[in-house]
Structures are given as C-alpha cells and as structure tokens.
C-alpha cells in the first residue's frame, strides 16, 4: 500500500535516477551497404573510440579487386550512381589524398582489397572524424568505389564510379526490459 512516506521515497528515487542518467549520445552506428540494384553487399559498424572512429567492415558480395573506400558528406544513397552522397566528408576543406601534403579529407581512408570470394572483414581506424560529426544534420555515408584511390588526385582520387553505398545511422541504446520500466 502506498503511504505518503513511500510515495515521497519513490518520487525522490525517480528524480535521482532521472538526474543522474546521461542523455543518449550515439557511441555506435551502422551503414548497410547496397549496390546500384539495391542488393545488400555488406555493412560497416562504426564505434566511437577515444582516438576517433573504428570502422568494422564486413563485406559479403563486393567485386574482387582494389577499391577506394571513403566516408562521404551526405547521408543519402540514391541509386544508381550514389552521387546523392556528395563528396568526401571534409569539414576542414583540405585537399584530397592520404599522400597529399595539403590533405587529406577527413573521409579519406586506405583502399580495401577484396579477394575473389567477394567477402572481406577488416577494421579501419579513422582518427580524423568523430561519430557526432558523421551524424550531423545531413548525415554521412560510407562509399566503395569501382577502382582504387590513387591517394593524390583531387577531388576524389580517380577511384571511378561508386559501386556501393550505405547511410551511417546511429544505433539506438538498448531498451530496458519491461520489468525495469
């Protein structure tokens, strides 16, 4: 039975918990990669770490070979060319290329090499971005290009057409079990 004392204690406990719970800030996101036909070809899980963002790449059906691998500035992946994703993520307005003295773009990353199986699992650390920056108002996307990035040519490394794209979306925090609500 609820007494004034138990109601007061319940209210005080609720207030204390509410004030001590931090607001949700994304510390993990995911980009589901699709080809121009809309077929899922893999995913990239992005995790905020103290030194940037760790990208766990899990490809399942990408053409074999070397491919440019970038974060693009807009969270849109409209087929067939994925140009809706804009250029490389580049908030500092640097020049393109990991080997360019005036670069790189924050979204520039090393090429990936996909074996004959079309499957690849790797992790890439990008120290030039934050998850909060990637999840800004217009979002961002992970893009795989047809050919390798030459790490120098401006604006995009001469990597060719975009063959896969995935919008980076924050993963929601786990939902508490019903008995804890």
UniProtKB/TrEMBL annotation:
GO terms for molecular function: copper ion binding; superoxide dismutase activity. It comes from the Bacteria. Destroys radicals which are normally produced within the cells and which are toxic to biological systems. CDD domains: Cu-Zn_Superoxide_Dismutase (cd00305). The keyword Transmembrane does not apply. Coiled coil: none annotated. Binds 1 copper ion per subunit. Binds 1 zinc ion per subunit. This is Superoxide dismutase [Cu-Zn]. Its EC number is 1.15.1.1. Belongs to the Cu-Zn superoxide dismutase family. It comes from Methyloceanibacter superfactus. Residues 1-25 form the signal peptide. Keywords: Copper, Metal-binding, Oxidoreductase, Signal, Zinc.
